[in-house]
Design a protein that fits this description.
Distance between the termini: 46 Å
Mean pLDDT: 96
Radius of gyration: 21 Å
Strand content: 25-35%
Helix content: 25-40%
Number of helices: 11
Structural class: alpha+beta
Number of strands: 12
Order of helices and strands: HHEEEEHEHEHHEHHEEEHEHEH
Low-confidence stretches: none
Length: 316
């Protein structure tokens, strides 16, 4: 991989050969999620070979350029090739090399992968950290054991929903977006992404064979709930979902979670199912009732501009 190539071009080549770059960090995924900003990457080499990378997304607000999380990207952060993980001295050197290359920003904010646990070089460089939680089911290849670990109330909801709806995959992205938006509308929350952004995101995932949609449909062809699953070589992610508020009592949303878990196990052959958070009490309870394990991940941040920090604190 010639060092004369721009970093993004080298990173695209690196993603094609690295064994386990998460879906959120794939170059094609970042391309599709960069509306409203830009993404770039810094790289660490060993003998002209890329061995570590730190992709990042940045936006501009007035005179301030800052790193943040783009839409649809739950986790990002440093990635090291497998042979460079687990030896602290080696990790520290590579992470220091990545940090030295970052351009100057007013602020840096990223959620790291739950599998990345060494943020110490960031601490040494005056970054700060807050612990968040996702919820993960492992051992999906023993699906009967996973099913046995589900709370009985959840199992009853699944059985009830199975009597009322059938699960299909062949509905449109437009129909999914409509259901997804209904959930935000019900909570009087603004939709965090436009149809155009979602369409671009969906098209990239479909083109790369990394998504499946699930719809719970009744005998009158009404869609009760919809779910959106994405994956990489390590895990499937319960990425997005939505419900028709008038039909929520059917329990179809719970059924779709189970169908997504089954799909990850039986069709994709994966061993891990990640719920992508959340920190909300009502959502957390459902994750735990499915038997998912609370798994920490790091939110790592730093302000380099006091003026930008004050501006952030003043925004509504």
């Amino acid at each position: 991989m010639p060092a004369s190539l721009p970093a993004k071009a080298r990173y695209r080549d690196f993603c094609r050969i690295a064994p386990d770059v998460p879906v959120f960090a794939q170059a094609w995924y970042l391309d599709a999620c960069a509306a409203g900003g830009h993404w770039d990457v810094v790289l660490a080499h060993e003998q002209d070979r890329v061995v570590a990378a730190l992709p990042y997304f940045y936006k501009q607000k007035g005179p301030f350029r800052y790193v943040t999380m783009p839409p649809f990207v739950k986790m990002l952060g440093p990635y090291l090739l497998p042979g460079y993980r687990g030896v602290l001295k080696k990790e520290h050197l590579l992470l220091e090399e990545l940090l030295k290359q970052l351009p100057e920003f007013a602020a840096f904010k990223q959620n790291f992968y739950p599998t990345f646990t060494n943020w110490l070089p960031f601490y040494w460089n005056k970054y700060r950290q807050t612990t968040y939680y996702t919820y993960r089911l492992s051992g999906l290849q023993e699906l009967a054991r996973v099913e046995a670990g589900i709370n009985r109330n959840i199992r009853r909801n699944i059985q009830k929903a199975q009597q009322l709806v059938r699960v299909v995959h062949n509905r449109s992205p437009e129909e999914f977006y409509k259901l997804n938006k209904m959930s935000f509308d019900r909570q009087s929350l603004p939709m965090p992404y436009s149809w155009v952004q979602f369409e671009q995101h969906d098209a990239a995932l479909a083109a790369n064979g990394a998504r499946q949609m699930f719809f719970a449909v009744d005998a009158q062809d009404r869609i009760h709930s919809a779910a959106y699953l994405i994956w990489d070589k390590q895990a499937a992610y319960y990425h997005l979902s939505g419900d028709d508020p008038a039909l929520r009592d059917s329990g179809a949303g719970i059924l779709l979670i189970w169908e997504a878990i089954r799909y990850a196990s039986e069709v994709l052959g994966l061993d891990c199912f990640d719920f992508e958070g959340s920190m909300l009490p009502a959502v957390e309870r459902i994750r735990v009732q499915f038997g998912a394990v609370q798994t920490p991940y790091f939110f790592v941040w730093k302000y380099n501009s006091r003026a930008f920090e004050l501006l952030e604190k003043l925004k509504p």
